[in-house]
C-alpha cells in the first residue's frame, strides 16, 4: 500500500491529467443539453483534428498557430456535418440518434485511414518540459490542457447562465416546441451547439494526442473519461462536467497507484467505464438526469 | 432546469453500456488498406487434396498423385508425434501463370504499427518479382488477411485462405498471438514458409520454415549485454499482457536474471488501451528500479516514453531497454534524444544501416511504398518473401512436397547479408536453429548499430 503522500500526489497528478478530458465532457453536455443527442462522434472529431494539425504542422510547412486554426476550423466543419446528418433524424428516438453518432465516429476513423493511412503517427508536444519533482512532476502540456479545459468550462458556464444566447440555447434543450413558439432560431442554435462541441473535441484532440500516439482510436478511448464525467454531471451542469473529469482522472491515477488494482491487467484502464456502468445501473435517473429533452 | 430525466426507465442501463461497448469495439476498427487485394482471390480453382493417410515414418514416404497447372503433383506423408499424420502434396493454388500465397497480419487494431510494415515489405518484394517475370514464369498472387492480432480472427483468416482461396502455401505472416496457426496449417497439409518465429511451435513443425528467431535468443543476447554494459540490477518490466511478452518476462525473471545477478523487482502488465503510463513510471521510480525493460508493442512503448520524457524520468544506470517488438522507427522518433541509449535486439541486419542487403530492401520497398516504418519485423516480412521466392525457384516444380524437400535441404542458407554472413543459417523446418543477434541503440531519434553479431548466451 503506497503512502498517503504518494496517493495525494496521484490525486493531484490524475486530476490535472483528467481535466483535459473535461473538454470532451463539455462537448458531450453542450450537445446533449441543446439537441438531446449523446454525441459519441466527438472522439472521431478529436482524432481528425489532431491529424489535420499533424499533416499541416508536424508533417507539413504550416506554422503552429495557422495550423491550429485550420485544424479547429475542420473540427467546426465536422460539427456542422454532424448537425446536418442528425437533422434528418430529428424525429427519431434518442437511441437511434446515439447510434447515428456512433456511425459518424466509425466514418471518421475510416476517413483517417483513407486520408492519412492506418499507421501510427506522432504529434509533437505543443509545449515541451514540465514542472515539479518526483511523484509531483507535471508536464507543461498537461497543465496547458487542464488550464484550457478549466477556462473553457468556466466561460461556458458563465455564458449559459448570464448571456441571453446561453439561456436561449438551454431553453431550446428544455422544450423545443416552446422555444420555437418564442421565435428562437432552433436549427441555428442546434448547429451552433454541434460546432462548439466539435471545436471542444478538437481542442482535446490537439492537447491530448501529443501525450500518446496519433491514430484513429486513441481519442475515442480518451472520450470515455469525458463520458464518465458527463454522466457525473447528469449531462447538465457544465462546471461539474469539468470537475468530474478531474475526479475521474484522479480515480484512475489512484487506482494505478494501488498494487492490488494495478496488478490486475486491464483494471486500471477500465476505471472510467466501470464508473459509467455503476452510475447508470445504480442511479439511472439521477445520473442521467439531463436537460429534459423529450424525444 | 432539470425537468424530465434523460432516461425514464432502466433501459438506459442497457443502452449506454451497449453504446460504450460499441465505441470500444470501434476503437480497433479501421478501413482495410486495399480492397483490391481482396479481389485477388480469383477463380483459378484447383483440386482439393487428400487428407490423412497411413502411418509413415518421418517425412519419407512419397508417391505421385497427378498433375495440375502443368506441374507434377506428388504427395508426402508427414508423421507428427502425438498427432494424426497428414499428407503434404499437390499443387493446390498453382495455375499456369500464378502461384497463390497467403499471409496474415494485424493490419488494424493495437498491433497494426508492427503488422502493416511487415505486410508492405513482403508485398513489395512479391511485386518486384512479378514485374521481373515472376517465379519460373508464374506471378505471385499474394492474398493478405487482417486478423487484428486476434487469435480467433487468425483462425478464420487461415480457414478462408486455405479453404476458399486455395492457397499453395502460407507465406510471410505476423501472428504472434496465435499459437494454433501452425498446427492448423500442418493439419491441412499447407506449407508455411515465412513463419515469424515468435511462438516456438513453428520450430517443431515439419512443414514450417521459420525466418525469424524466437524470443529466447533475443532475450539471451539482449539482457546479458545490457547487464554487462550498465550493471542494472533492479529491473522493472512493463509488458503487454499477451503470451509472447509474458514469455519474455518469465525468461528474464526466472532464467536469465538469476544467473546474471539481476532481479526483476517490479512488473507491470499493460493493455493496448493503457494511456496512463505516468502512474506506472512513478511506481517504477518508487520501486527504485535501475532500468526499465519495455516488452510491449511500439505504440505502447511510444506512450510510455513520451510520458517518461514529460516526467523527465530515466532510471539509472540502466535507462530503458526494449525487446525486438519495439524495434521500429516510430519509437526513437517519438522521444528524440531523451531515448538515447535505449537498446533493442535484432536477428536481421539493422535496416537503418546501409549494406548491400538493406539497401536492396529499401530500394524495393521504397519503390511501392513511400512511408514505411523500418524495424526488425519489417525486415522479417521482406526476408521471408525473399526466402519463399528463392525456395520456389530452387524447387523448380511448384508442388508442395517438392518445395518442402527443397526447404529441408537449406541447412546452411545464405540470406544475402540479412543474417550473420559468417554463419549461414539453417532454415530447414522442424527444429529451432541458433540465430546471432545485433543490438541496436536509439540515438538522436534514430536507431544506430550498437554491436556486431553476438551469439545467444547459454543459460
What does this structure look like?
The complex is a heterodimer of chains A (295) and B (459). Chain A is mainly α and 295 residues long. Chain A contains 14 helices and two strands; from the N terminus they run αααααββααααααααα. Chain A has helices spanning 4-19, 22-35, 42-58, 64-87, 94-116, 140-162, 164-174, 176-181, 186-209, 218-232, 238-257, 259-262, 271-282, 284-287, and strands spanning 130-131, 138-139. Chain A has a two-stranded antiparallel ribbon. Residues 290-295 of chain A have low confidence and may be disordered. Chain B is α/β, with parallel strands linked by helices and 459 residues long. In chain B, α7 (243-260) links the parallel β9 (234-240) and β10 (263-270). Chain B contains 13 helices and 15 strands. The longest helix of chain B is centred in the N-terminal third of the chain and has 20 residues, at 112-131. In chain B, 57% of the residues are buried. In chain B, α6 (215-230) crosses α7. The chains are: A mainly alpha (295), B alpha/beta (459). The interface between A and B is large, with 82 and 63 residues.
Q: Which key features would you list for this structure?
A:
heterodimer; A: 295 residues; mainly alpha; two-stranded antiparallel sheet; 14 helices; 2 strands; 72% helix; 1% strand; B: 459 residues; alpha/beta; four-stranded parallel β-sheet; 13 helices; 15 strands; elongated; disordered N terminus
Total helical segments of chain A = 14
Q: Largest chain interface and its two residue counts?
A: A-B, 82 and 63 residues
Molecular shape of chain B? elongated
* Quaternary organisation of the protein chains: heterodimer
Strand order of the largest sheet of chain B: 10-9-11-12
Kindly name the structural category of chain B: alpha/beta
Mean pLDDT of chain B: 83
Order of helices and strands of chain A: HHHHHEEHHHHHHHHH
Amino acid at each position: 500500500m503506497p503512502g498517503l503522500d504518494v496517493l495525494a500526489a496521484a490525486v493531484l497528478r490524475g486530476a490535472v491529467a483528467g481535466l483535459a478530458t473535461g473538454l470532451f465532457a463539455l462537448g458531450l453536455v453542450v450537445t446533449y443539453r441543446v439537441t438531446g443527442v449523446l454525441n459519441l462522434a466527438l472522439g472521431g472529431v478529436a482524432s481528425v483534428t489532431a491529424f489535420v494539425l499533424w499533416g499541416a504542422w508536424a508533417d507539413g510547412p504550416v506554422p503552429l498557430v495557422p495550423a491550429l486554426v485550420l485544424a479547429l476550423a475542420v473540427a467546426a466543419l465536422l460539427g456542422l456535418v454532424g448537425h446536418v446528418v442528425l437533422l434528418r433524424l430529428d424525429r427519431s428516438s434518442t437511441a437511434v440518434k446515439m447510434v447515428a453518432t456512433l456511425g459518424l465516429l466509425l466514418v471518421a476513423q475510416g476517413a483517417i485511414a483513407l486520408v492519412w493511412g492506418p499507421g501510427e503517427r506522432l504529434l509533437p508536444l505543443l509545449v515541451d518540459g514540465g514542472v515539479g519533482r518526483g511523484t509531483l512532476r507535471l508536464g507543461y502540456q498537461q497543465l496547458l490542457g487542464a488550464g484550457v479545459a478549466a477556462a473553457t468550462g468556466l466561460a461556458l458556464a458563465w455564458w449559459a447562465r448570464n448571456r441571453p444566447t446561453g439561456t436561449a440555447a438551454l431553453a431550446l434543450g428544455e422544450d423545443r416546441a416552446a422555444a420555437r413558439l418564442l421565435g428562437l432560431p432552433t436549427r441555428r442554435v442546434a448547429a451552433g451547439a454541434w460546432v462548439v462541441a466539435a471545436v471542444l473535441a478538437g481542442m482535446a484532440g490537439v492537447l491530448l494526442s501529443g501525450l500518446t500516439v496519433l491514430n484513429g482510436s486513441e481519442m475515442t478511448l480518451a472520450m470515455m473519461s469525458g463520458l464518465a464525467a458527463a454522466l457525473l454531471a447528469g449531462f447538465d451542469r457544465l462546471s461539474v462536467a469539468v470537475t468530474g473529469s478531474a475526479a475521474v482522472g484522479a480515480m484512475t491515477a489512484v487506482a494505478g497507484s494501488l498494487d492490488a488494482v494495478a496488478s490486475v491487467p486491464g483494471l486500471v484502464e477500465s476505471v472510467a467505464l466501470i464508473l459509467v456502468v455503476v452510475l447508470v445501473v445504480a442511479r439511472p435517473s439521477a445520473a442521467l438526469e439531463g436537460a429534459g429533452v423529450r424525444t | 432546469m432539470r425537468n424530465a430525466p434523460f432516461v425514464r426507465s432502466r433501459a438506459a442501463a442497457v443502452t449506454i453500456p451497449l453504446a460504450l461497448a460499441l465505441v470500444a469495439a470501434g476503437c480497433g476498427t479501421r478501413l482495410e488498406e486495399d480492397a483490391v487485394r481482396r479481389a485477388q482471390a480469383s477463380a483459378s480453382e484447383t483440386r482439393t487434396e487428400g487428407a490423412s493417410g497411413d502411418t509413415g515414418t518421418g517425412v519419407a514416404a512419397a508417391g505421385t498423385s497427378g498433375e495440375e497447372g502443368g506441374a507434377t503433383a506428388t504427395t508426402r506423408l508427414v508423421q507428427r508425434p502425438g498427432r494424426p499424420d497428414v499428407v503434404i502434396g499437390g499443387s493446390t493454388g498453382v495455375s499456369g501463370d500464378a502461384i497463390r500465397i497467403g499471409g496474415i497480419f494485424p493490419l488494424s487494431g493495437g498491433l497494426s504499427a508492427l503488422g502493416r510494415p511487415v505486410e508492405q515489405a513482403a508485398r513489395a518484394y512479391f511485386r518486384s518479382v512479378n514485374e521481373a517475370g515472376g517465379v519460373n514464369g508464374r506471378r505471385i498472387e499474394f492474398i493478405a488477411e487482417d486478423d487484428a492480432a486476434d487469435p480467433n480472427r487468425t483462425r478464420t483468416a487461415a480457414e478462408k485462405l486455405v479453404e476458399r482461396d486455395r492457397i499453395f502455401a502460407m507465406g510471410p505472416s505476423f501472428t504472434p498471438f496465435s499459437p494454433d496457426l501452425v498446427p492448423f496449417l500442418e493439419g491441412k497439409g499447407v506449407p508455411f514458409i515465412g513463419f515469424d518465429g515468435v511462438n516456438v511451435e513453428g520450430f517443431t513443425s515439419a512443414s514450417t520454415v521459420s525466418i525469424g528467431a524466437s524470443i529466447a535468443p533475443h532475450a539471451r543476447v539482449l539482457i546479458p549485454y545490457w547487464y554487462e554494459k550498465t550493471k542494472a540490477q533492479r529491473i522493472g518490466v512493463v509488458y503487454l499482457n499477451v503470451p509472447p511478452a509474458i514469455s519474455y518476462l518469465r525468461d528474464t525473471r526466472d532464467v536469465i536474471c538469476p544467473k546474471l545477478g539481476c532481479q526483476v523487482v517490479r512488473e507491470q502488465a499493460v493493455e493496448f488501451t493503457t494511456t496512463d503510463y505516468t502512474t506506472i513510471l512513478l511506481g517504477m521510480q518508487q520501486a527504485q528500479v535501475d532500468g526499465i525493460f519495455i516488452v510491449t508493442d511500439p505504440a505502447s512503448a511510444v506512450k510510455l516514453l513520451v510520458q517518461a520524457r514529460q516526467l523527465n524520468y530515466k532510471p539509472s544506470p540502466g535507462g530503458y531497454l526494449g525487446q525486438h517488438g519495439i524495434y521500429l522507427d516510430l519509437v526513437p522518433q517519438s522521444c528524440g534524444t531523451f531515448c538515447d541509449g535505449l537498446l533493442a535486439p535484432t536477428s536481421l541486419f539493422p535496416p537503418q544501416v546501409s549494406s548491400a542487403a538493406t539497401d536492396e530492401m529499401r530500394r524495393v520497398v521504397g519503390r511501392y511504398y513511400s512511408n514505411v516504418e523500418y524495424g526488425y519485423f519489417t525486415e522479417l516480412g521482406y526476408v521471408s518473401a525473399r526466402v519463399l521466392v528463392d525456395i520456389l525457384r530452387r524447387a523448380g516444380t511448384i508442388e508442395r512436397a517438392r518445395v518442402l524437400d527443397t526447404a529441408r535441404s537449406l541447412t546452411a542458407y545464405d540470406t544475402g547479408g540479412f543474417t550473420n554472413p559468417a554463419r549461414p543459417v539453417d532454415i530447414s523446418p522442424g527444429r529451432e536453429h541458433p540465430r546471432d543477434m545485433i543490438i541496436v541503440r536509439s540515438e538522436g531519434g534514430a536507431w544506430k548499430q550498437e554491436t556486431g553479431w553476438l551469439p545467444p548466451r547459454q543459460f
